[in-house]
């Protein structure tokens, strides 16, 4: 009883703003930082509940709004193995966030505990971190109040990238198991990745020099630190757009989301022809690469290109090693048609398509021995199943070639962040492969040619009226609309288009691709017009 009064007492310090309906969506809670105080406080309560439900396993709380503008912020929970919060808990998060009064909050909190048979006297462990946004420190204070209100133990990891916190969570929860994931510290992260990179690229030429636009976010300083651990004997990484103190510059006309959606260079970047460039997003869980050719033409190497490069490399390594493992790819409807065709017809690896959002891709990738998933926007990773790891570890090579391939595969598993898409880890993965192939960006880009495509954001009266099937590739509702889209698409060579409600904004998105730039643009406009 006394303890419950603590919740109400602390909650009065974090009043809920009136007239706002909060929802835990694909990216957790995300909105203006100034509106998030009560939400983050309550996420503290929920994180403790989640940990208590799981016998005191450590839960992560990340405060970030990724690629959103500087004034936004957000918060999301990380489950014990470094995965996204289990979907069934999203409704509890939404419930607590929307409780109208301090008493209602206490009541809702108790109701969740009761429904899930959670022992409120058991231990709760939470770790958290934030990105570089100005609203971060105050939100961290709100989170601490939430954790204190319910007597949870916590550790503040201060400023980290989102994937670094996912890594830390997994390390903590696997520390006493047969397969510890690593040292649960920022240094442990750098050491693990740096060592793996050095082994994967041993005896190979240095990868091409890479210039990285860090979106003026947390990825800048962290990437520089990582590069320091690896050493300039092994890789040359040149970080630009790393002004984290100029908070208003975060994601502004730079960063992975800008480059991918605008299909152009970050503002002010003057690229040398045929050199390799990359852009991170604001919390460094996405990366896209690009270059300009001799004719100054811009070429984007997005998530689909990364997936294709990685699939080719892993498939070839497996073939050389003689280890029998099934590689599979997971994509979303946004995957460029040319990439899907290349993966299926040329590489002959199975492709699964899921709805947008990491949780869907991640789970589908877990069904393969080695599951590669990337969203076209540059979020993705590679998952090695436990049995795949065992097969690789116990494999008895018949010759040095096989041994080399198996060693490389095992080091790749260490280099790749197995918890979530990680821009820094993906950057090392891609450059390691380019080093093996002795490729520059233009050779990488040769595998297939993207179909021109266009993404349009359309504001509609009610985006919830848009219901899809077939992994968001077809509309079921509003009735009749899909038939109209089909009729349009039919008129375009290599035409494809779909419409889906955004999970993060109050709008619907229209994607279109076709044989030429003009036709892709035209198809996107015509489909958008159907929605008005
Ligand atoms: C979220 C997702 C991202 C997805 C994006 C789509 C996670 C961690 N992030 O940022 O994977 O691409 O939403 O946004 O799941 P949309 O629904 O607004 O198009
Ligand atoms: Zn992000």
In short:
It contains 18 helices and 19 strands. With 532 residues, the chain is of the alpha/beta class. The chain has a five-stranded mixed beta sheet, sandwiched between helices.
Mind sketching the topology for me?
Blueprint: H1 2-11, E1 29-32, H2 37-53, E2 58-63, E3 72-78, H3 90-98, H4 102-115, E4 125-130, H5 136-149, E5 153-159, H6 162-174, H7 186-200, E6 210-213, H8 219-230, E7 237-240, H9 255-262, E8 276-280, E9 287-292, E10 298-301, H10 303-321, E11 327-331, H11 337-347, E12 351-353, H12 358-365, E13 370-374, E14 380-384, H13 386-394, H14 400-415, H15 423-437, H16 441-445, E15 453-458, E16 467-469, E17 474-477, H17 481-489, E18 496-501, E19 508-513, H18 517-530
Parallel strand pairs: 2-4, 4-5, 6-7, 6-8, 11-12, 11-13
Antiparallel strand pairs: 1-3, 2-3, 8-9, 9-10, 13-14, 15-19, 16-17, 18-19
2-acetamido-2-deoxy-6-O-phosphono-alpha-D-glucopyranose binds at residues 26-27, 356-358, 375, 377, 379, 502-505, 509.
Task: Describe the protein.
By secondary structure, the protein is an alpha/beta fold. It folds into four domains: 2-159, Alpha-D-Glucose-1,6-Bisphosphate, subunit A, domain 3 (Alpha-D-Glucose-1,6-Bisphosphate, Chain A, domain 3); 188-299, Alpha-D-Glucose-1,6-Bisphosphate, subunit A, domain 3 (Alpha-D-Glucose-1,6-Bisphosphate, Chain A, domain 3, 3-Layer(aba) Sandwich); 303-445, Alpha-D-Glucose-1,6-Bisphosphate, subunit A, domain 3 (Alpha-D-Glucose-1,6-Bisphosphate, Chain A, domain 3); 453-530, 2-Layer Sandwich (TATA-Binding Protein). 41% of the residues lie in helices and 18% in strands. The protein has 18 helices and 19 strands. It has helices spanning 2-11, 37-53, 90-98, 102-115, 136-149, 162-174, 186-200, 219-230, 255-262, 303-321, 337-347, 358-365, 386-394, 400-415, 423-437, 441-445, 481-489, 517-530; strands at residues 29-32, 58-63, 72-78, 125-130, 153-159, 210-213, 237-240, 276-280, 287-292, 298-301, 327-331, 351-353, 370-374, 380-384, 453-458, 467-469, 474-477, 496-501, 508-513. It has a five-stranded mixed β-sheet with strand order 1-3-2-4-5, sandwiched between helices. A five-stranded mixed β-sheet has the order 7-6-8-9-10. A four-stranded mixed β-sheet has the order 12-11-13-14, with helices on both faces. Helix 7 packs across helix 8 (219-230). The longest helix has 19 residues, at 303-321. The chain is globular, with a radius of gyration of 23 Å. The N and C termini lie far apart (55 Å). The model has no long low-confidence stretch (mean pLDDT 97). Residues 26-27, 356-358, 375, 377, 379, 502-505, 509 line the site of 2-acetamido-2-deoxy-6-O-phosphono-alpha-D-glucopyranose.
